[in-house]
Amino acid sequence: MNTLFDNLPLPGLSTTDRLPSAVPPRDDLSTGRPAGDPLGTARDDVTDPVERARRRAGLSAGGSGRPDEAALLEGLNPQQRAAVVHTGGPLLIVAGAGSGKTRVLTNRIAHLLATGRARPGEILAITFTNKAAAEMRERVEHLVGPDARRMWVSTFHSACVRILRKEHATLGLRSSFSIYDAADSQRLMTLVCRQLDLDPKKYPPKTFSRKVSDLKNELVDPEDYAATVSSANSFDSALAQAYTLYNQRLRQAHALDFDDLIMVTVNMLQAFPAVAEHYRRRFRHVLVDEYQDTNHAQYVLVRELAGVDRDADGAGDRDGLPPAELTVVGDADQSIYAFRGATIRNILEFEEDYPSATTILLEQNYRSTQNILSAANAVISRNPGRRAKNLWTDSGEGPLVVGYVADSEHEEARFIAEEIDRLAAADGTRPGDVAVFYRTNAQSRALEEVMVRTGIPYKVVGGTRFYERKEIKDAVAYLRAVANPDDAVNLRRILNVPKRGLGDRAEAMIAAHAERERVSFGAAIADAAAEPGATREGRPVPEVLGLATRARTQVRAFHQLMEDLRAMDAAGARPAEVLDAALDRSGYLAELRASEDPQDATRVENLAELHAVAAEFSEQDAEGGLGDFLERVSLVADSDQIPDAAGQEAGQVTLMTVHTAKGLEFPVVFVTGMEDGTFPHQRSLTEEDQLSEERRLAYVALTRARQRLYLSRAAVRTAWGMPQELPASRFLDDIPGSLLDWRRAESSMDTLRGRAGSGFRAAGTGYRSGEGRPDGRRAPARSGPVRTGKLESTGARLGSATPRADVPGLDLGDKVTHDSYGVGTVVGLEGAGSSAVAKIDFGGGQVKRLLLRYSPVTKL
Ligand SMILES: Nc1ncnc2c1ncn2[C@@H]1O[C@H](COP(=O)(O)OP(=O)(O)OP(=O)(O)O)[C@@H](O)[C@H]1O
Ligand SMILES: [Mg+2]
């Protein structure tokens, strides 16, 4: 089998190999921990920043670095303990939700270090999200001191990027290679299909993109795939062609797509035994959380890294090294990523794959009350072919699970908002204690509307993500093209953005030149920009045919701009500075500022936010260059936007899909849209496998709740603009009636409906949609239109990192005018210089935080 980068010419570029700090721990995570909870696995209740700092200082001053071994075992049950202290062969911990799997994994790492069985550098721990990784690292670091930084705790993708950045030369890959997200990959696939003259109706690039992703997750390379295709099948052979060309284009662009990160790493470890040996010598302990959601490529990666031979009875003695100690934890009932190629097989057959494995079952649940657990068990027990589990809790029965049938999705949202208020009044529940789940992102809109109207602070995790916004993708494309001059997808994206007279025709001419001369698109731009008769390395630069004189001048200016930005980067400018220069000198920012479209004003704010993210990145990692920053941007996932302990204290209800909620817990959980056709999803109703996956998803949803669980549904839901009557979710039917407290059941609704007509509203709710709140609460300034998690927290940190406000010419109370928002009053000032931010009240509840560099205001 060929590796992806066979035959790649060695670019011979500088190999300044800055090791990326795989998601450095956030400052606000390094908090003190409540006594009696050495790992801080319980909620962190220290809200006072001074107290936090004191504890932190106290700890580092104490600085022994070696926690008491006994303290690490305290409070654990016998099975958990056995898992923590286990030595030797592979260890599988399988257990239901909330039984302490993640906690055991964390304690096990700390225990390995505390007992001296492992040095931090020998540990590789894989978590499902960057955020989970940061938390785990921080908890271990808290125990063993800064030495723990040498551990690798990260997601599969981050770990692979880190390896690839180190080993790029082996692959003939530029160290600043680009990472293409799903949208970039699809764009590239569209270009490829166009080049192959494939009819997009018959061969949709989107479908091809997905298929290629599936193939990569199965470690099937283009050649392997082509070999399986019978020439009679035109779809498959078109796909094989497209896959081949797509990979060639990636290679030319020095780019990897998301699935490549894993596949290329696996291929490299298999093709270069010396590289594999290096990592096997280094990582003597490999630990994987959420193992049920690994796909085939990840499965093989774990094997390669741990150095376990498949047929060698678990004692594969590769490179003369005994295999690493492998610990995996998971729950087959929570496998919810089959659509991304995850296979439960990896957990179900672990014992077969690793015959010397020890299996430990955990049966006590520490998260939820018995009623919640019983409801979740009732749902999951209907899945065929699962191993029965006996999960119990001693935390008492708790309140019944609350059921609610709403007229519509709007009324469902209203019920939730009222209930959140009621709980706040009754027992001091804070918005940060509450999560609202839905099956698909589209369902968040009705919920958001009510949150805005009722003034409940909230945060949407996922959805249209910050980094998927057009203006952010444009800006990042500039940065990527600066870091990697061969990055065709990103160069093509910005070639005519903002418009500079380099339209489709010019782009096609440059692409054709690249094709003819067998050079990258970036190199073709350089050719087009060359003066007539210019030479390069003693040879005349080939002419780019078909470019009008005006286009030629424009290409020259564009190329010069990019080269200038590259020079800035090479001279050590910070990512935020390169960003500012790119947006200024390209005219991008000026164009947005000049626009009358209010959306463009929001775009300017989003770009300002990106500037803040970049500035914050440099604050955390002064050495970090553009490549490191872009890597961080590439690896941000939905779930990384979930508020951390600090965010939760700040008090925002979290709205998210069930998929994103995996591994998390909240005191109060609302699961919405419990309808057949919504949850379970319409698509799954006829397919048994898919229905089983939906059931596991429901199990994940229900088991996130610690104390209170609400299950609601709408009798009529509008999807795709069409109101639809949907029957109750079959998962609701699975739950014994004795566990449910129907606040409003179907029958009572019918009665009330008959009485109140369609304008029905639940009795005693106090206010109607559109009315002001009785308590006069004001909608928070930043919820609603600005939907990214980053924004909220970055803003706060920007302020706290630079408490000194030094904004020349502005004072609190000044009247100012802004092109889009009109006249306002300065109500806050933060930061200084290019990071100066003014908080301005433009009246009508419109308070904006403006980065003045991006959104200048004029003092009146
Ligand atoms: N022995 C214990 N004593 C007290 N609390 C515990 C114990 N073990 C775990 N917990 C707590 O129980 C909760 C669930 O633990 P954890 O998140 O590790 O479970 P999990 O099995 O990883 O869950 P999931 O399957 O949802 O990922 C956490 O709040 C954790 O701190
Ligand atoms: Mg867990």
From TrEMBL:
Source organism superkingdom: Bacteria
Residue spans of biased composition, Low complexity class: 754-766
UniProt entry keywords in alphabetical sequence: ATP-binding, DNA-binding, Helicase, Hydrolase, Isomerase, Nucleotide-binding
Entry-linked InterPro entries: ATP-dep_DNA_helicase_PcrA (IPR005751), DExx_box_DNA_helicase_dom_sf (IPR013986), DNA_helicase_UvrD-like_C (IPR014017), DNA_helicase_UvrD/REP (IPR000212), P-loop_NTPase (IPR027417), UvrD-like_ATP-bd (IPR014016)
Residues the record lists as binding ATP: 95-102
Annotated GO MF terms: 3'-5' DNA helicase activity; ATP binding; ATP hydrolysis activity; DNA binding
All residue ranges annotated as the UvrD-like helicase ATP-binding domain in the record: 74-369
GO cellular component, one term: cytosol
Catalysed conversion reaction: ATP + H2O = ADP + phosphate + H(+); Couples ATP hydrolysis with the unwinding of duplex DNA by translocating in the 3'-5' direction
UniProt-listed Enzyme Commission number(s): 5.6.2.4
Domain UvrD-like helicase C-terminal: 370-663
Pfam hit, one: UvrD_C
GO BP annotations, alphabetical order: DNA replication; recombinational repair; response to radiation
Region: Disordered, residue numbers: 1-50, 754-812
Membership in a protein family: Belongs to the helicase family. UvrD subfamily.
Designated name of the protein: ATP-dependent DNA helicase
Organism encoding this protein: Georgenia muralis
